[in-house]
Amino acid sequence: MTRVLIADDQAPTRDGLRMLLTGEPGIEVIGAAVDGADLVALAERREPDVVLTDIRMPRMDGLAAIRHLMSLAPPPAVIALTTFDLDEYLFGALQAGAVGFLLKDSDPALFVDAIRAAERGQGLIDPQVTRRLVHRFAATSPRPATAELDELTAREREVLVELARGLSNAEIAGVLHIAPGTVKIHVARILAKLGLATRVQAVIYAHRHGVVTWDDA
């Protein structure tokens, strides 16, 4: 079972997510937090596999909570939730270690898909805003190529390019004519060499450092 913890300061959102996920095969909702401080305390006690958390909450916001969650051993996979697809806090959440994000009015099926993807170590960003999100993040703070990029093999760089285009492991395997398991190994090595924690961070990195451009994507 994938153990899921929900955090939102609005009771209707908490209750709605709990109702959506309750009874879903392989998913167990183990608690619901009312703010970031409550989320951190619950996560320390209950050790969730996946956390769905709002960004804007009282006492401790979602960004600070995510940073705390990333210090746990092992840290849960975090999916950030927001009402606004251009929420500035969202960028910080992705840098802090969130594996993806959804709008609160996303298709209900996406919440289940995002949880299952997070449990597999993959990220999922709401398709409504993926391109705008990463483009805005990349455009606001472009950076030159780094020495770490030189450490990537030719194949790892190819995988990073396809990753930055938003392809899944299976899709990358099809494009590069290699096994999905091999793609998974390459992704893990890319993250390690670039000092990144998640696939989402790798996508942002690739765009910010000129590995791909939006003409490529």
From TrEMBL:
UniProt KW Isomerase keyword: no
Keywords: DNA-binding, Phosphoprotein, Transcription, Transcription regulation
GO biological process assignments: phosphorelay signal transduction system; regulation of DNA-templated transcription
Cited Pfam families: GerE (PF00196), Response_reg (PF00072)
InterPro entries in UniProt: CheY-like_superfamily, NreC/VraR/RcsB-like_REC, Sig_transdc_resp-reg_C-effctor, Sig_transdc_resp-reg_receiver, Tscrpt_reg_LuxR_C, WalR-like
4-aspartylphosphate modifications at: D54
UniProt-listed Gene3D superfamilies: 3.40.50.2300
Entry superkingdom: Bacteria
GO molecular function: DNA binding
Residue ranges of domain HTH luxR-type in the record: 145-210
Domain Response regulatory: 3-119
Name recorded for this polypeptide: DNA-binding response regulator, NarL/FixJ family, contains REC and HTH domains
